[in-house]
Structure formats: structure tokens, C-alpha cells
Prior knowledge:
The structure holds two protein chains of two kinds.
Chain A: E1 4-7, E2 10-13, E3 19-29, E4 34-39, E5 46-50, E6 54-55, E7 63-76, E8 86-91, E9 103-107
Parallel strand pairs in A: 2-9
Antiparallel strand pairs in A: 1-3, 3-7, 4-5, 4-8, 5-6, 8-9
Chain B: E1 3-7, E2 10-12, E3 18-25, E4 34-39, E5 45-51, E6 58-60, E7 68-73, E8 78-83, E9 92-99, E10 110-113, E11 117-121
Parallel strand pairs in B: 2-11
Antiparallel strand pairs in B: 1-3, 3-8, 4-5, 4-9, 5-6, 7-8, 9-10, 9-11
Amino acid sequence: xxxxxxxxxxxxxxxxxxxxxxxxxxxxxxxxxxxxxxxxxxxxxxxxxxxxxxxxxxxxxxxxxxxxxxxxxxxxxxxxxxxxxxxxxxxxxxxxxxxxxxxxxxxx
Amino acid sequence: xxxxxxxxxxxxxxxxxxxxxxxxxxxxxxxxxxxxxxxxxxxxxxxxxxxxxxxxxxxxxxxxxxxxxxxxxxxxxxxxxxxxxxxxxxxxxxxxxxxxxxxxxxxxxxxxxxxxxxxxxxx
Lengths: 108, 123
């Protein structure tokens, strides 16, 4: 079973700053089968990144994903007020396709 | 437009049963695998179960194996989750989510999510 660890747990930043979120896997995730989801309070998760680096429809290019193997990163350049949310990574390489514990990006 | 609408949530006593439904529209339902993902109050996402599009292969998280049953009726574009022997730790918002491929295994992530149904297990 692949276990995902996300860091930091909470990231306190100001609008306009850059956010760097980490997702580390206990085993290699083949084919970069790693997704990121954004969740705002009271809302369902929303697909943000798939294949480690492909951006889903509707998200601007200030969001980018990178990484391979066991180390993956989500970067949000120039934070906008609507970007403050919780971000989860999920591997879909092996079952069970577990999620990481999440990183909360909050306004400083 | 893809839409997923969950229903059937509510308050149930420990040991009781409940069936969630997820009505899908905006896509050819039988062509895609579907998942249930839950979120306990104030906690993160937990993948629960998955079912393939047509052949109905299924897979469960260890935490619900033997108690929950995922199924689908492709003629009604509806996904189900039958939850038996419910425990307090099953209290959560349950989301149905569409996968991008028909299968339930590797390579398929979730591209659309429903708004969720709250299940509360309490005496």
C-alpha cells in the first residue's frame, strides 16, 4: 500500500506570494499517476492537476505540478484570494488509491 | 454538463444500515468507473470503494470491506453504496466521483465530484 505524506500541514501566506506544497510517497508512483485536488470550505474537491503536471480545465497557469517517482510538488504562483483552500494529492497507480492528508493554504 | 447528485444520507444508529444513491447526468454513465470517497468532519479525504463501468468489478478500502457494497444500475445512470453494520467512525460526508476510464484500477483519476451526502452514525 502506497502512503502519501503532505507537507507542510498548513501554509500561511499573503496574496501575491508563491505557495510550494509537497507530496511524498512511500513507494514509487509509476507513470506519474499523481493527482492534486483543491477543496474549499463546504465544497466538494475539484480536480486541479493530473499526471503530476497536467492542469485540469478551468485552472489558470499560476498553478503548476511537477515531480516523479516519490516526490511531487504543487506550486501556486502569485496567490489570489480564491486560491486559499485545502489541497490534497492522490496516487492512482496502485490500489488502494489513497489520498494524502492535505495541506491547508491560509491567508497570513 | 456532468452532474452527480447524491442522496440518501441521514442519521442512523450504530449497527444500522443506509443506502446512498448518486444520480449521474451529462455523460455516458456505463462508460466510466465510479468511486465513493468520504470525509469525516474536519478531516481529510478517504477513498472508500470503486466500481468499473460495465463488468462491475469492485474494490473496497479495508475499513469498509465486508460491510459496504458498491453497485450501479446503468439503465438508471445511478451509483449506489449500501452501508451495513454502521459505526460511529463511518460518520462523514460521502462523495461520489466519476473516473476517467471504465476500469477500476491503475491510471484512472477522478475528474468530477458530487456535492456530497452527510451520514451521521449516532445513538
